[in-house]
Amino acid sequence: MRYNKIEENIGDIEPVVEIVPYNTGYNVSLHRDMQNRELIFEYPTVYLIYDKLGSGRSSNDPKFKVYVGETNDISRRTRQHLKDTGKSRMDWKALNESHNSQMIVIGDYYFNKSLTLDIENKLMMYLLSAESVTQLNNRRSNPQRKYFMSDQFENVFEGVWQTLRKKKPEIFPEKSEIENSAVFKASPFHSLNAEQHESKNEIFGKIESALKESSTERGKTIFIAGQAGTGKTVLLSNLFYDLTNSSLVRKDSVYLLVNHDQQKNSL
């Protein structure tokens, strides 16, 4: 079965963005705006939890730590964050104990599970490259493949970013400013094409096999060949990110050589 593409200009439909204090009173704050209640509480949503860092709280150039997530139930997910996660992770402990933490909840009529995962992923990719964000507290990358509405993803994301920028320009700069940075170009959160996915899986398999072999064996080298602009850097950063977050190796035993100082911040 094939779905017809949606022809309307989705980018003209502004998403709902609510900003509330991140504390046990979040539910009351979100319920105050009854007009947007359906999109916030009955549709999948994307959310961000953020706090200003250190001296940046009184600075003209504030710095932030940010968490990006998506959920089918914002009330339940926020309760989980407030009650459970802070007990086991220091980054959540800091967000939970701060009196200044805020939560942004994004709702959109066009959101579905796959689309919110892609929005979450792209927000992480952009915020990782934003100068105002010095700490991004996410642990995963969830790029999606084809799904209903995937052809409209860029239009939906454009609407989300521009609405966020209207609300919090100190966190969300112009997209062009981010897209021109070396950090953005090397981000591990870029979606891979089919060829890159195949190469990544093959390389990951070879690394896994090599690590299971005798520790006395000499190291192995894997070469990735390709002309400029074929996606080698994105493939490498994506592979490195997944490897450092896998159970195969310790984080401090994996190294990546970079050819630009700015890229150090992306990984």
TrEMBL record:
| Native organism taxonomy | Bacteria, Bacillati, Bacillota, Bacilli, Lactobacillales
Source organism, top-level taxon: Bacteria
Q: What is the originating organism of this protein?
A: Lactiplantibacillus plantarum WJL
Name this polypeptide is given: GIY-YIG domain-containing protein
Cited InterPro entries: GIY-YIG_endonuc, GIY-YIG_endonuc_sf, P-loop_NTPase, SLFN_3-like_DNA/RNA_helicase
What are the GIY-YIG domain coordinates in residue numbering? 42-143
Please name the SUPFAM superfamilies in this protein's record.
GIY-YIG endonuclease, P-loop containing nucleoside triphosphate hydrolases
Q: Pfam family example for this protein?
A: SLFN-g3_helicase
